[in-house]
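Researcher: I need the complex structure. Ligand is beta-L-arabinofuranose. Inputs:
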Amino acid sequence: MAPLITHLYTADPSAHVFEGRVYIYPSHDRETDIQFNDNGDQYDMADYHVFSTDSLDPAAPVVDHGVVLRTEDIPWVSKQLWAPDAAQGRDGKYYLYFPARDKENVFRIGVAVGDRPEGPFTPDPEPIKGSYSIDPASFVDTDGQAYLYFGGLWGGQLQCYQKGNADTYDASWLGPKEPSGPGAKALGARVARLTDDMHQFAEEVREVVILAPETGEPIDADDHDRRFFEAAWMHKRGDTYYFSYSTGDSHYLCYATGTTPYGPFTYGGRILEPVLGWTTHHSIVEFQGRWWLFHHDCELSGGVNHLRSVKVKEIFYDDEGKILPVPVDQ
Ligand code: FUB
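Model: Output:
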């Protein structure tokens, strides 16, 4: 399957249908001399483009709407504009959520607002209060209530917040560390309901718990084939909430299901096996009655981990609502 976008490197695609078109909000990967490390320093992105299309036919054109936000536009940011997402608020405006390092090198999540899905976006002068870590994924439920999921281990710093809120930051956990050992439970992604104006968290941040179906207990920290690492995504099909994510160092895209946006979620299986490149990150969206997985791999760059390209594949569910594994590109 060919990449959707070939004139730039793009990754971490968050796709939504707005005004009848598919809009894609990816990271914009760029060349760098920074050596690969477990902190992700080589993912040194400095701006965002937005893309859209009115068809997911492989031959259909994808429009590049150009740069919609850049590092120098955001007063609190020092570097690393990582995986973004966007949502439409009750006021009809569009909100771009993005993680970046602040001036103290700590990842926070910012929000920028625009009148159109393709931007441009004007950032708030400060990050969202109480935000931390990376990979914001917005979800607007069928009742109109908006939520923000976020978090990512290691370079994404989630392991520095084991006691919950942003005030508990513990720098001694920086680096490729996470809970481990007998009895240790995996750290979960985080979620909070958004305020009606979409600019802040409306409540205390909660942990997203994923249960092992065979025990009904939270996934173990050492279960690297199933534990949450990064790339949270939420979609709803019928009454079921599907929380999907990357397992990071084991390189799977997995999902878990629940009956509320907060969970708990029960592990459901793998969506995608490892692709070419270290990271795997995705979104799932319904468009014209069919369901689609947007993800990235490093095929276009010949396997350079930080030069990724967005792809799209149709996904299918069985009669019980399980997502059928998606064939990986050979
Ligand atoms: O693109 C930078 C980081 O790589 C993202 O935030 C992670 O999800 C991983 O894809």
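Model: Summary of the prediction. Residues 11-12, 27, 40, 43, 82-83, 134-135, 152, 230-231, 279, 281 surround beta-L-arabinofuranose (CB under 6 Å).
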